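Ligand: F0G. Inputs:
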Amino acid sequence: MKLPFAEPYKIKMVETIRKSTKVQRQNWIEQAKFNLFNLRSEQVYIDLLTDSGTGAMSDLQWSAMMTGDESYAGASSYYNLKNAIKEITGFDYFLPTHQGRAAENVLFSVLVKEGDIVPGNSHFDTTKGHIEFRKARAIDCTIDQASDTSVFHPFKGNCDIDKLGKVLRSHPVDKISCIILTVTNNSSGGQPVSMGNIRETSVLAAKYGVKLIIDSARFAENAWFIQQREKGYSGKSIREIALEMFSYADGMTMSSKKDAIVNMGGFIGFRDEELFRKAAPFNIMFEGYLTYGGMSGRDMNALAQGLYEGTEAEYLGSRVGQVAYLGTRLKEYEIPVLEPFGGHAIFIDALKFFPQISREEFPAQTLAVEIYLEGGIRSVEIGTLLADRDPSTRQNRYPALELVRLTIPRRVFTNNHMDYTAAAIRNVFERRNDIHKGLKILKEVPIMRHFTVELERV
Ligand code: F0G
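Predicted complex:
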């Protein structure tokens, strides 16, 4: 019998989490205006809001924090991080930032100007936010198969090369800021992008003289899928695969809060010195001096260590395996989930779960609220609330998919927590036909409304 992937670590420290009653949760969700971001963490039993910054650091990361060098300039921690970034990504130049969106802010200050377009696969919401804030447009060229939750495609995060080619042909080069490939493709369900697709995108980028940037938050999980699913990669290590992925890009933005398993941090990697030089003053203005940016020395040390731990095959096997474990339980209960399972989360298809609730009433948010009421589990809507309104028409944008994301933090929960979660969702599924109405908006802001929106039951 083939031995399964088991966690390559044991637990040294624990944190108490508490259950609550349904009556308590009913009150709390009303006080939170049916927005799960407004809940206090004590009001949540199993928090699957995000895998971002919620991972458990290792003993080696904590001990690296103790030896952090807090010098303003030229700290040893900066050089530790520089060496790790060079080894894992191949990039010679980098700027430290406090998180992923800060990396976007600094890099886009150089690359994106009013009237530009930024094509790629699906842009994450902060990425789109930073593009639209600069009065430019993000164009999603993800393959069509991504919008069918039941189609099996091994690389559903891929960019459609024909769509991308059309976009590039129909715009003057000086209006194209860059191409962004997000690996894994979070907005389409944590789906990986194949090496072949990264390579083809880079060929197209080079043909048009446009820079290719990789949004790398989950690059190691992406490398894992390439190793498992793509011809010619099963014999390569995760680090060899990651190096090849980055070899096709001119730069990368990184939210280290995901695959580098730290609670805060990010960076921008650059292939050439020129772009690094142009971005450096923005880093100094927005983040901090070049050798610390948005991070303290101890945080850079922990991040350097996390980059190594996050790219170990044994760890990735158990991590992606835990996500699939939850997906498999839900499938056994016939709950409509996006397949194949993503790297960091399981996504429930709310349009199939609640076909009776109209899209104007936010079925995915309604489902996320029901899952919280049932089991104290916090998930997140990846649907119409997140998609925001169209910047010009101000109408709701209805994305192809209306999903609830159950996002698994790294090295935090056990499979018992996954069983509990699956059971709670099964209970909601069993009473799904008793729920006829969704939610309506009371208050919203013009950009990234999902964080602060206030809702009430219809
Ligand atoms: N890019 C991707 C693909 C992301 O998923 C995120 C964050 C960011 C950029 C921004 O990074 O949070 O460090 O500023 N995603 C989190 C999530 C918030 O829940 O998916 P950040």
